[in-house]
Amino acid sequence: ERLNAFKSGHPSIERVDGRGLMIGVEFLGAQGQPLAKFRDEVVDLCFTNGLITLAAGTSTLRIAPPLVITRQEFERGLDIIERAIADVEETHWESLRA
Length: 98
Known about the structure:
Helix 2 (36-48) runs antiparallel to helix 3 (71-97). The protein is α+β, with helices and mostly antiparallel strands. It has helices at residues 2-7, 36-48, 71-97, and strands spanning 13-19, 22-27, 54-56, 60-63. The protein is built from three helices and four strands; from the N terminus they run H-E-E-H-E-E-H.
């Protein structure tokens, strides 16, 4: 729910989809082109801030927390992901969407 709400204010996010705790966030540019470099920067920034995420497909961020994750850990992870997406959009959106 939180990622879907975040999606509404961020043009880089095309789709949020998943089952259970495995979630994918797909990034596409203004013309519908995959944003692999954008996704890679989000993955790197998440890692720098203490969260391991994975790349999936052409331009999707895979989130797959352990089943024993606490609510507090889950919320902290979402904070890191949301901030990483916002930061990459803020600094690179114009160059990455072309």
